Amino acid sequence: MNRALMIQGTGSGVGKSIIVAGLCRIFRDKGVNVAPFKAQNMALNSFITKEGGEIGRAQAYQAEAARIVPSVDMNPVLLKATGEAGCQVILDGKVHRNMRADEYYAYKEHTWKTVTDAYARLCRRHDLIIIEGAGSPAEINLADAEVVNMSVARHAQAPVILVGDIDKGGVFASLCGTIALLDGDADYIKAFVINKFRGDLEILRPGLAMIEERTKRPVLGVIPYLGDLGLHEEDGIPLERLWWSEKGAARGPKIKIVVVRLRYISNFTDFDPFLYEQDVELVYSLREADIEHADMVVIPGSKNTVQDLLFLRETGIEESIKRAAAKGIPVAGICGGYQMLGKKIVDHHGIESSHREVPGMGLLDVETVLERTKITCQIEAEPVRSSVFGVWSDGETQLKGYEIHMGRTEGDAGLFQVRRLGPCSELRTLDSELIQDGSARGNVWGTYIHGIFDNDRFRRGIINRLRTTRGLAEISGVTDFAAARDRALDRWAEVLAKNLDMQLIEKLVQ
Predict the structure, then answer these.
(1) How many domains are contained in the chain?
(2) Is 335 a known active-site residue?
(3) Which residue in the list 126, 155, 232, 450 is annotated as catalytic?
(4) DSSP for 151-173?
(5) Are residues 193 and 285 in the same domain?
(6) Does 338 share its domain with 289?
(7) I want to staple 32 with a disulfide (CB 3.0 to 4.6 A). Which of 27, 181, 253, 423 is the partner?
(8) Candidates 335, 377, 405, 424; catalytic one
(9) Quick check: is 450 catalytic?
């Protein structure tokens, strides 16, 4: 069996994902052939691999930290909540079907084989696997059904480091309580890490000594609270990011980009590149004041487009978006947001909800029909129209991104010419023909292209157009998002290396 190390947590949101990413970078920089693995991920933030498979975005980012190409083997089971339809179950990167919780747990035997086969393939290609757990391993009602925490630790014979978030409160109780509830499986937990600490470490030290005495396990380190690191989150927008701007990085007015905070928001990492632009304030909001006084409004992707559209309609946010568009504020829709901007959404098969047809916002001359076939592939695209409120002229002519959608949108489409670069998951074909994507009308536009804002010159072209509308001078420099993100990973790895006992961690993985 390969060397393995597992990071589990006392609950969700304690920092498991980015700790795995940081450790992947540390070991890779030491020359170790390392890869991440998460058996089961429940997330609406997903990524499309080169083979057209869908995995959690966090595992793609962890692979980036390890300086390797993301693979479906790194996240063989992905669950995407869809509301009343339960969860969409994705196995080995491909949609299996929608399942309720009871159906999914009854399917464990097949799911577990998917997990162990993927882990075996990953082990054949890499020397060290850094495994991420999910939620808490002490969910005792799920102990016999889970395929992601102690079942994986046992299978991989992996020592476990348990992470607790002190910022949530009760960290000592949660660490000790997890040990107490796990019975024999507690033997796999070899050490603790305390994350997101604020204040004087000397005041905490007596508590560290007491928990080590009580549990007979060392505390490997205490990681300071650093706020939003600008790193990809697994499936929740950090509270800091709801009003995130790179404060102090640049003086003068900032361009305010408001992302509509949908209930089923997916792939909100599409907007991470704006975090690195010093003249941008990125806000996730449902407030009318934010939407109607933005420099640009973006409706993001959604795992349940129909329900999110109805939510915007019922709360009056749809009218706020329409008022913003009428005032000349640019409004963009990505994937599900693009579908919402059209004239109607048809769901004959009940894929997302019981509503068979719902009027859209009517801001674009397109209509969407939801289909059972899910298109997942990486793409290249070229702008077809010369201008959408003037943003293309100084941007790239060749854009990169990826598609994840179950709808077909037709009408006044043709903003981009898209070429699919590999097998498109459920289509199971290599589709190299050019496809028309996206639509625009006045200051409103939409596209299925996820990751479109990762394209540096395209992104700067949009920001500069928004600047000139405000009477501000354009900025000629272009931020290299990939390089900035890589530097952020290096800084995070340095924080971990400084605050964790890396010698003991290396001893654990021998």
Answers:
(1) 2
(2) yes
(3) 450
(4) HHHHHHT--EEEEEEGGGS-HHH
(5) no
(6) yes
(7) 27
(8) 335
(9) yes
